[in-house]
Amino acid sequence: MRLAILCLVASTVLPPLSRAQAPVFTITPEDSSIKFHVKASVDLTGTFEKWAATLTFTSPDVTTGVLDVKIQAASVNTGSGMKDGKLKSKDFFDVEHDPLITFHSTKVVQTGPDTFDVQGTFTIRGVSKPETLTLTVSGKGTGSGAITGTMAFDRKDYGMNSGIPFIKIADRVEVNIDLHGKRVSGPALVYKQ
């Protein structure tokens, strides 16, 4: 009986072996950015000022990575109060009812020495659909580096069917991420060559 209690206590207090041997990274928002671009008759490019991203692994194998991005939709900044107001409205981001835009990766596929297709669930306006983020990694083996990439989606798939007065806008939206981070503990990641 004592052995069973000791094992139970040890399993709740001590980290699992696989977790202890997994790399741990932090993303530094002050060096990073999340931007978007939509082809339009008037430039429609902007950034999100408030967001958080995490990158976690269950082992040193880079394909075990899970990328989570949470964006405060109301933090959109196009440099134009009129455009920002329209994007925050119920016609686009609907920040009052759905304040977060999220991406949660479900699979990482290495497509080249430094490139990856990151499949995941993208949610905007409360609508979730599978999307793929195409990434390039720099700084391999140094303990710090950058993840840059693009995800494109059709805004109408997420219920953003309206336009902006006097501006003709395309349906395709490109989201560009530039995430800088560093390994704070654990072993280096293992890549396929």
Automatic annotation (TrEMBL):
Instruction: Kindly state which keywords UniProt assigns to this record, in alphabetical order.
Output: Signal
Signal peptide location in the record?
1-22
SUPFAM superfamilies registered for this protein in UniProt: YceI-like
Q: Which SMART domains match?
A: YceI
Pfam families per the UniProt record, alphabetical: YceI
Q: Does the keyword Ion transport apply?
A: no
Domain Lipid/polyisoprenoid-binding YceI-like residue range list: 24-182
What name is this protein filed under?
A: Polyisoprenoid-binding protein YceI
Q: Which organism does this record belong to? A: Edaphobacter aggregans
